[in-house]
Amino acid sequence: MTQNDIFNDAIHSFNTSYWELCTQSYEEVWSENFYKTLGYIKEELHFSIDYFLDHLIHEEDADIFKDNFFNYCKNDVDFKQHLQILNKNGQYQLFKCVTNNELPPELTPERHYIFFFEILLDPGQAITQDNFYFKETAQMTATGSWYVDFVKKQSYWDFETKKILEYPDDYIPSLRNSAQYYPEDCREQAASLFFRCAMNGTPFNTEIKMITANERVFWARAIGKPIYNKKKEIVGIRGVFQDIDEVKRKELQLKKSLNTITSQNSRLLNFAHIVSHNLRSHTSNLSLLVQLIEDIKDPEEKNSLIHEIRNISESLNTTIAHLNEIVAIQNNKHQEKKKVNFIDTYDVVMNGIKHLIAEHNAEIYTDFSQLDGVSFLPAYLESVFLNLITNAIKYRHPDRNPVIKIKSFLDEGNMSLEFTDNGSGIDLHKAGDKLFGMYKTFHDHKDAVGIGLFLTKNQIEAMDGRINVESIVGKGTTFIIEF
């Protein structure tokens, strides 16, 4: 059974009054129960929107229903409205009129329908109560009404709109000066909304900044829809302004706080990885040296290794000091960079990985003559050096010793640092955007973790820099850092 079949069964079971619309021609089919509820037989009425507006609906409800009807047909804008319809006995019956969006999702038909549910109350009493509640609601929710008449070229505001925009009760709004009701950064948005509504009949419901007569900028919800004449021509726009300034500012503050928390969490995660990654390098070297000392019998050679332990210990202390510095910086809203010397950073890193370099006969050449340093976080720069150098050794070509060249340079005033190796290279077509992803590895090396490049990229971007890579499989890789 199709959804339309389910809908047809339901609508006949409940004996509902409705119109089925044809949106292309503005024609509609009135249900048998619609005639029956009003006491008519089908032959006594001409089923068209024009006939309904001229002869059946109460004149107080006609204009609103007409605009709702055409907006529903042209722009799929659902609506609900109370209205009075003349029955065969010459009396008005009160109905609640709703569209498809009031139906449960499983019953929503494919075509447009308008449903009429009779309200068995005294119509006059119900309308009086509705008007009272409307005024009360407008005041309590700071919602004002407005209307732009294209025929008379005039604008109309109710008292609540004047109150919201802080204009006196005798103020006459002007179409010519309408831009003054919006701050400069929102005038284009406002003009676009009104133009599309006026030309295409596109209704709007948006949040926008407005400006009062006292130059106070506040957030408002602006809702507008086109007004049609009987020829289906747009002759105006009607809508409401609601002062949502307090709620909107709280929402923006909440978003700002959420972004701050997200950024802090990201930095804390980054910090945790730095701790595990950088400290592991030092501890691995210490473990290796201790093992060597235990195996070596020669006292002189042992003393030499103990001296190396002292160097690694100093580098370890430096790293921990930098990490402590990061903790302090994370708590500082405005992170302060400081001038970091490339040679000093290189020396600290080399002290920690000297044995790794010796073990693999790696050659490292540096040239910092054009640029001796940059403004950076020392711990981040140390981590960048460590990751790129150890990666070059780890992913060396199997047929040759690793050769690493590090140089800084200026390119049209832009500061850059370049790491080039003669290693195995990376298939960039295969790696794609995942090259700098967390836990993404592109070699079969047993020590590949996939964290180093992720950390490096995040640290550089945190300092407003960026990193690019060039690589040829079998020949080597170049990382270029722009500060």
From TrEMBL:
Q: EC number(s) in its UniProt entry?
A: 2.7.13.3
Instruction: Please report the stretch or stretches of sequence annotated as the PAC domain.
Output: 204-256
The broad enzyme category this protein falls into is transferase
Catalytic activity from the UniProt record? ATP + protein L-histidine = ADP + protein N-phospho-L-histidine
Q: Which residues form a coiled coil?
A: none
Q: Name one Pfam family in it.
A: HATPase_c
Provide the protein name.
histidine kinase
Q: State the organism of origin.
A: Aquimarina hainanensis
